[in-house]
Amino acid sequence: MLAHVPVTPIDIEEYRPIVGDATIDELRALSEPLRGMVVHHVNATAFGGGVAEILQSLVPILQSLGIRAEWRVIRGADEFFSLTKRIHNSLQGLYAPFTPDDQQVYLRYQESNAALVESEADVTVVHDPQPAGLFPALIQLREHHPGGGWIWRCHIDLTEAQPDVWDFVASQIAPYDAVVFSLEQFVRQVREGQILRVLAPAIDPRTPKNAALSLESSRSIVARHGVDPDRPFLLQVSRFDPWKDPQGVIDVYRMIKQVIPRAQLVLIASMADDDPEGWSYYERTARRAGEDFDIHLLSNLNGVGNVEVNAFQQLATVVLQKSIREGFGLTVTEALWKARPVVASNAGGIPLQIINGKTGYLVGNNVQCAAGALRLLQKPRVAARIGRNGREHVRRHFLITRLVRDELMLYRDVLRQRALAGGERQPISQ
Ligand code: UDP
Q1: Ligand 1 proximal residues by C-beta, below 6 Å
Q2: How far does CA 139 lie from the centroid of its chain?
Q3: What pTM did the predictor assign?
Q4: CA of 369 to the centre of ligand 1 (A)
Q5: Which of the chain's ends, N or C, has fewer CB atoms near its CB within 10 Å?
Q6: Structural domain spans, the chain
Q7: Residue 333 Cα, ligand 1 centroid: separation in angstroms?
């Protein structure tokens, strides 16, 4: 059997005070005809990364609505995961050689995982490229369609995908009934007749990263990390990575510091000890920060985990997200949810979240970024209004309950399409 990931039960009613009656009632109505259906989500890892984050909430919420949802992970050795990491990077635009041998390794692991699939679900959702070949491998193994509806859910940015790698992945996802992307600009049509959906990511307002924290706890966490909670501070939460432009953030802070000498800057990143790239970029960022003790570079290595990120996001005077390239930008969603005024660049999914002048400021360069942040620092009433709008925008569009609704509609549509096809496979043509 594919390894089963246990989840902590959640009661959907816990979201009612946060999202309101209409949303919860709609979820109950949508799930009513689907009660008892079996849904399997399959991905590559139980910990780390956005997919695991989403499944930890999505699966138990579906269960609370009467859906028999389960989370399974595929098995693989180092050779497989280092290959799929390369595939992942080249789909996101970093060139890497991709040989016929690589394809064989990939297919071999799909076959061995297909042999571990025992029970069949009404709908199986396969996440990202690592397990994408599971469905075609099952068809081959059983010599017929394994039953149920099959959905491939892509969480990555495909705009600069390396063509040979994408062609290979596309050949694996051609048989799926539906393909789902995170943003309109990532959509790729793989074959006629396949259901195509765009489902934006979402955050769970009940997790330690997003739940309300008392002002005292937030202040004491911030102070414990050497930041003065009584002075204004700018915050960016992002890996030390050139695409997140931490050096640009320091340049922006310096412009602001000339006008507001009390200002502080906090950069929070998560560092993996096996990520040499992260360390070398950390060093470059630290050099740019120099001897300014009002610049704080913090990470998980200083004990900054989910609750600490939450506290910094709750207390930041202005949140920055200066990404040069971005997927969706969950850090923006998290900050908006905490009613923080955000100044961010116009990249990836950020413009879906920041409506310029209403839920934050969208900026094109350092000078605009500094001007936007300065305005928010100097006009607390404007900052408060923008913060409130941002929270409301996230409440409506980017909370997990919206994602649950989209998922339920997708399962319904996939089941309908399969019923229309009489349970038969439609011809597959690429
Ligand atoms: N994050 C964190 N600690 C850090 C840095 C980032 O918990 O030190 C989290 C952040 O809160 C967000 C995610 O990592 O939930 C980053 O997601 P995003 O979409 O912003 O960027 P990505 O890293 O996926 O490009």
Answers
A1: 50, 237, 239, 268-270, 299-300, 309, 327-331, 334
A2: 30
A3: 0.92
A4: 21
A5: N
A6: 3-202+399-420, 215-397
A7: 11
Cβ neighbour number for residue 207 with a 10 Å cutoff: 16
Q: Which two tokens stand for residue 430?
A: 């690429």
pLDDT tens across the length of the chain (430 residues): 899 999 999 999 999 999 999 999 999 999 999 999 999 999 999 987 789 989 999 999 999 999 999 999 999 999 999 999 899 989 988 899 999 999 999 999 999 999 999 888 999 999 999 999 999 999 999 988 888 999 999 999 899 999 999 999 999 999 999 999 999 999 998 899 999 999 999 999 999 999 999 999 999 999 999 999 999 999 999 988 888 999 999 999 999 999 999 999 999 998 876 667 788 889 999 999 999 999 999 998 899 999 999 999 999 999 999 999 888 999 999 999 999 999 999 999 999 999 999 999 999 999 999 999 999 999 999 999 999 999 999 999 999 999 999 999 999 999 999 988 875 544 433 3
Matching residue, tokens 């360390």:
279
In angstroms, rounded to a whole number, what is the distance separating the alpha carbons of residues 257 and 238? 21
Assigned CATH topology for domain 215-397: Rossmann fold (3.40.50)
Domain 3-202+399-420: state its class: alpha beta
Atom of ligand 1 nearest to the CA of 328: 19
Could you tell me which residues come within 8 angstroms of residue 335 by beta carbon, excluding any fewer than 6 positions away? 235, 237, 313, 316, 319, 321, 342, 390
